[in-house]
Structures are given as C-alpha cells and as structure tokens.
Design a protein that fits this description.
Helix 3 runs antiparallel to helix 4 and helix 9 packs parallel to helix 16. 53% of the residues are buried. The protein is mainly alpha-helical. The C terminus is likely disordered. Helix content is 81%, strand content 0%. The protein is globular. It folds into two domains: 196 residues, Up-down Bundle (Growth Hormone, Chain: A); 213 residues, MFS general substrate transporter like domains (Growth Hormone, Chain: A, Up-down Bundle). The chain has 18 helices and no strands.
Length: 481
C-alpha cells in the first residue's frame, strides 16, 4: 500500500514535469524568434510586412483558438488534446525550419500557433485535475516559473542558435523535444475530462472572432503597401467591425458561449482584461522592432541582441512574485496603474534612441519596462480571477490569456503600420533608410507610450480591491463570512 501511494505521489510530479516541459517549448517560441528576425529577413529576402506575419501568424492563431482548445480538452479528454496539440506543434516546427520562402514559413507558423492553442489550456486543466487543492498552488507556481524562465532566456537562446548554427535550428530544436514530450505524456499523464452531460463547441463564435481578428491584422499590416484608402483595406476594416459586433451578439445569446460576455458586467474583470489587451498592444511590437533596431541599426550580433533583453526579463522574474504578494495585501489597482505608468515611461525613453545610441541609452528603458510589466501582469491576473466565481475561474483565465494574445498580434501589426507610414513619409522627404526607419520607430513608440498610459488610467478607474470584488456565495459577501 505504501509503495502504491508513493508511486501515485511520484506520478503527480512527473505529470507536472511533462506539461511544464511542453509549456517551456510553447513560451520559448514567443520570444526566441525575435532575435532571429534579421537573419530570416536576409535569408528569405523578405520585407517588413512579411516579417511581421512570421510573428503575428503564430500569435493570431494562438489567440483565436485558445478558448476552443480548452473546450475541446474538456470534451474529448485533456491528455488527448494535449497530445494532438503537441504533435501539431512538433510537426509544424519541422516545416518552419525547412521553409524556403516567406509563405511557407508563415503558413507553418500559423499551424504552430494552433498546436500551441490546443496545448496551453490543456496544461492548466491537467494540473488542476491531477493535484488536490492543497498542492495545486505549488504546482501552478512551478508552471508559472517555467513560463517566465522560457520567456527570459528565449532571446539569448535564439541569438546563440542563430549566430552559431542558423535560424532554422530555433525550430528544429523543437522536434526532438516534442517527440520526447509525446512519449512522456503518453506514458505518464492520465486521461481526464469534463463529465458534464451537456457539452458543445461554439463554432459560430470561433468563426466570427477569427474573421474579425484576421481582417483587422491583415488590414493593419498591408495598409501601407496597398494604400490606407484602398477598397480592400477599407473593406477589411468594415468586415472586422461587423464580425466583431456579430461575435458579441452571438456570445450574448449562446446558451454555452466560449466567451462569457456577461462576466464583463464586473468592472474589475472588464478593466483587468482591457489592461491585458493594452499591455500586450503596447509591448509586443517593442520586442519585435527593438530587436531589428539593435541588429540592423546598431550592428549588434544576434547573441548580443538576445543578451541585451536579459535585464528586463530577469527583472520580470524577480519582481512578478513580489508584486503578486503585494497585490494580496494592498489590492491590484495601484500596482497595475503604477506598472502601466512605468511602461509608458519606458516607451518614451525608447523613443529617444538614435542611430548612434549606446547600450546605456537602452538600459533605462529595459529596467523601467521590466519593473512595469512585472508590476502589472501578476496583479492583473489576481484582479481578474478574484472577480469571477470559483467555477468560472477556468473561463476567466482563458479570456484573460486570449486578450493578451490578441493584444500582441494586433500590437505588432499596429506598430508596424505606424512605423511603415513614418518611414515612407521620411523617405519621400529625402531621408536615408536608417533615418527613415528611426522616424517611423519614434512615431510608433510614442503611440505605444500613450496606449500604456491609457492602460494606467483604466486600471485606476476600474479595478477594485480583491475583497470587495470577490463574488458572493449564497448572497453573503466573503468579507462578511
């Protein structure tokens, strides 16, 4: 009996190791690609808009399919969907590495994002189903730590691989890791699913949300090439708006919606999700374009560019848990408002960069950005999840992550559109290519700084204390129990 109990205990932690292993691979792909972008651009001879699609294609399919991935895992089995997602991610990684053209790489990245969307929510569901409540916090802490570690070392690993082996290998390396993960998950993870009688996919919601996001991102990325007033671009903006309205109306009237719009009646939940959208909207493009600036303008190697981000990402790892504990004591409002203000200051400092800037000019922006993101992200999650009923925690978490991914994909497209417009006008005035790029970059960074500042105001106005926003049980607020 004792041996059996010990085996069961070990199995739990091996299960956590298996999903954490896969999670590391997913999160690594969020940042490892950025420092390889100049090498990809040179090798495949592609323009900025195609380069943007290499990143946004992944983020967009990830965002659109994440809630569906979570629902499929509950319906058909969490291990099964996790394995399918991991297999899709692994095979598409191979095709990313083999891609000899922009269209093949972008297509493979879209499929890779779909695989990640199936895996990501399944990792949380598997942990919840495997660990009892008293151990779940520790398991989720390890899950979050692995995620943060992957984001932190991604740029450095990407730089080392790109410079010493080749950009293709940032994708090839996923293949043996994915195969090992498939074997481990098949042997270790036990199947679990939602046993509720009524289960159904929200296909109309999936279709309308996908159309709305794709049309918006495509219009932003291609507007400078095809013209902002061209019938195609104006039509895409109109299609995005109509599909977005249709999505909201559908979700309001669905009996089993994938996106519970009614949760937004709580101002704290609504505010936390808007801040999640705005922080990603402001910052994702920065990682993309500052990587290009460091390598194409300052002449940094891929390794040096990757290492340059370390102060920022290490600060996030150190400060985020402290901010989480502080939010438990003080509430999330002013931590989030202060964090977004620091991010706005960081973006303003980035906007002062010049073609001859040294790393000392970059460092203050990196440090402000690290403190700002860490002070925002953990309290933001705490605020969102404290404002929904316990049985809606999974839905609330999925919606928050969806807003973050949507903000990231739209942010890169928006910043790219502003940069391209500013560069084009500068070139028409006789500026050099470098000066034109800097002109566009400065415009994009100032807009991002304003977006972050708007996030600070929204946090200050909408977020309430955790105690006041925690939903009542049987009509009795938690503070009165």
């Amino acid at each position: 009996m004792k041996a059996r109990l010990l085996a069961e205990e070990n199995r739990k932690w091996w299960t956590l190791a298996s999903v954490a292993f896969a999670l590391f691979m997913i999160m690594l792909d969020n940042t490892v690609v950025n420092v390889a972008l100049p090498a990809i651009q040179r090798d495949l001879k592609i323009g900025i808009s195609e380069l943007e699609w290499v990143v946004t294609g992944y983020a967009l399919s990830f965002a659109v399919l994440m809630l569906t991935g979570g629902k499929l895992a509950d319906m058909f089995g969490r291990r099964r969907i996790f394995l399918i997602g991991l297999a899709v991610f692994t095979v598409s990684s191979l095709f990313c590495g083999l891609a000899g053209s922009a269209s093949l790489l972008i297509g493979a990245r879209v499929v890779q994002g779909a695989g990640a969307a199936f895996m990501m929510p399944a990792t949380l569901s598997i942990i919840t189903a495997t660990f009892p409540p008293k151990e779940r916090g520790a398991a989720l802490g390890i899950w979050a730590g692995v995620s943060a570690m992957a984001l932190a070392i991604g740029p450095l690993i990407g730089g080392l691989i790109t410079e010493h082996i080749g950009w293709n290998w940032i994708f090839y390396i996923n293949v043996p890791i994915g195969v090992a993960g498939l074997v481990a998950a098949r042997l270790i993870i036990r199947e679990s699913k939602d046993t509720s009688r009524e289960q159904r996919l929200d296909l109309p919601g999936l279709l309308t949300s996908g159309v709305a996001l794709f049309a918006l991102v495509y219009a932003l990325i291609e507007a400078n090439t095809k013209g902002w007033t061209s019938p195609l671009i104006l039509g895409l903006f109109a299609l995005s708006a109509l599909a977005g309205i249709a999505f909201v109306l559908l979700e309001l009237h669905q009996r089993l919606p994938m996106f519970d719009v009614k949760l937004f009646r709580d101002p704290t939940f609504a505010g936390a999700n808007v801040v999640a959208l705005l922080v990603s909207l402001a910052m994702f493009g920065v990682f993309f374009f500052i990587s290009l600036f460091m390598q194409n303008v300052l002449g940094y190697s891929a390794v040096r560019a990757g290492a340059a981000f370390l102060p920022m990402t290490l600060l996030i790892i150190v400060v985020a848990p402290l901010a989480g504990r502080a939010s438990d004591r003080l509430g999330s409002r002013w931590l989030m408002a202060g964090g977004m203000t620091l991010l706005s200051a960081s973006l303003f400092v980035y906007a002062q960069l010049q073609p001859n800037s040294s790393y000392l000019s970059l460092l203050p922006a990196m440090l402000l950005g690290g403190f700002g993101m860490a002070s925002t992200m953990t309290p933001m999650t705490a605020a969102a999840l404290s404002s929904v009923p316990v049985d809606k925690a999974g839905v609330g978490s999925g919606m928050l992550n969806t807003f973050r991914q949507v903000g990231g994909s739209v942010g890169i497209a928006l910043m790219g559109a502003i940069l391209a417009s500013g560069s084009k006008s500068a070139l028409a005035s006789g500026a050099t290519r470098v000066d034109a790029f800097m002109n566009g970059l400065h415009h994009a960074l100032y807009v991002s700084a304003v977006i972050a500042l708007c996030g600070a105001v929204i946090a200050a106005v909408t977020i309430r204390s955790h105690a006041r926003t925690r939903p009542a049980v049987d009509g009795v607020p938690e503070t009165a129990r």
